[in-house]
Amino acid sequence: MSKILIVEDDKTIALGIEYSLKQEGFQTEVAHDKSSAEKILQTSEFNLVLLDVSLPDGNGFDLCRTIREQGDTPVIFLTVRDEEVNVVMGLDIGADDYVTKPFRVRELISRIKSVLRRYEQQPPQKTEIRLGEVLIDTAQARVFKQRKEIILTALEYRLLLTLANHAGQVLSRKQILEHIWDVAGDFVNDNTLTVYIKRLREKIEDDPHRPKLIQTVRGLGYKAGVGFETD
């Protein structure tokens, strides 16, 4: 039985979510502010965290960063703010999905099940993946080039790992998006993916304008390029 932490300052919304999740067979725990959530996370493990962006003593982005530092527990953001900058920021620091209030409970539950299913179906990862001179240490979620660490955002790392795990295989934009996140909405689209591909190339390619590690296959998508090895 999956256990979910609900971090929501609106007690009415939190109560409604908690009731609905229990009806679906989930175990739940509720925190109404950032400090309470941090204390709970120190003593309990969860299969997923529902996280409000706006909290009375901080914000969900900071709490999401803390969760990401501690492990890979899935995070779904709940917020009334649906501007592109907030969507991208949430995804960038490691959120798995983003639901804008007001939302339908059935939709939220569907998103939760989708994220949990994706984590449960993930195959065991190789300890190390090499892409040319780039080394991906999957155990620590760190990336190196010529022994120098490359700092990637959570979403850049997911993108690189997705391409590297399918090296030599052409992935369509849709396939890549499905591997990286479960978000639906106007802000998660081809343009967003193009931006991330560009940012990733700038960090790992010798010449981002003539990429060798992340190749564009015109009309089809992208593929990881030369020098692929796994340990």
From TrEMBL:
Pfam family, one: Trans_reg_C
Keywords per UniProt: DNA-binding, Phosphoprotein, Transcription, Transcription regulation, Two-component regulatory system
Record domain OmpR/PhoB-type: where: 126-226
Domain of life: Bacteria
Subcellular location as annotated: Cytoplasm
UniProt keyword Transcription regulation present: yes
Segments forming domain Response regulatory: 3-116
SMART domains given in the database record: REC, Trans_reg_C
Positions where 4-aspartylphosphate occurs in the chain: D52
Record keyword Transmembrane present: no
Gene Ontology biological process terms in this record: regulation of DNA-templated transcription
Predominant location: cytoplasm
GO cellular component term of the entry, any: protein-DNA complex
UniProt-recorded Gene Ontology molecular function terms: phosphorelay response regulator activity; transcription cis-regulatory region binding
Binding region for DNA: 126-226
This protein's name: DNA-binding response regulator
